[in-house]
Write a structure and sequence with these properties.
This protein is α/β, with parallel strands linked by helices and about 260 residues long. The chain contains six helices and eight strands, in the order αβββαβαβαββαβα. Strands 1-2-4-3-5-6-7-8 form an eight-stranded mixed sheet, sandwiched between helices. The longest helix has about 35 residues.
Amino acid sequence: MLFKISKTGKHRGSFHRWIQFAFLIWAVVSTLWLANSMRTQGVDPALMQSASLVTVVDEGTTLAFFPGKQGGRVGLIFFCGSGVSAVAYAPLLRPIADAGYPVVVVKLPYRFAPLDAHKEEAIDRALKVIADHPGISRWVVSGHSLGGALAARMAKAHHGLIAGLVLVGTTHPKQDDLSFLQLPVTKIYAMNDGVAPVDKVLSNQDLLPKKTKWVEIVGGNHSQFGHYGHQLFDGDATISREAQQGVVRTELLDVLVGLRTGT
């Protein structure tokens, strides 16, 4: 009897080890797949090089594109999405600097800003950008996905420091009531976005000002707001990445130009 109990216990222990091993393999494969899906893809290296019209400054906390001739002291701060490199937004944002507007991309702590303290740190990085560039008197704050959540949080806590807000591919604000904002607000979302689906985006309309400009990108998805792989749970895009980002860029420039010209 003792031998049979020992043998059963041995089999049970072996089974548990196989379960643990399988879980470990699944965790490693999932992590590698996720890392690969968030990897920057298709960015022309020339976009990261300074040229006659734009100076590129890539630092530990920010990636900046500074034009030689600035557009009326108006600039853009853009928060990265969770896990997405700042470089993945270069194709979207570098042309805005080419048009004469300073652009500073805020990198997230540890790429994902996993803790609330990290999210506050990201906002502090944006506040430092404003403090370090007193020559730029009006800042538009924007961000993609989690970056949009951070932009919304910054708008609520520091609305006196910003002149415009553009939320891209995000369901936020979720809890923060921003309906009081007296500044241009644009909400951009994609029809096939599986990470920030349309129904959840629209469910928070009351938390934004009544004059918010709502822009739906027909055929767009979540991943194509940047230059990286297909994100987990995302839908399939039926338009090109360039076309989708072209819509976002146009809307960002519309706010920047409006602030410069007073329209």
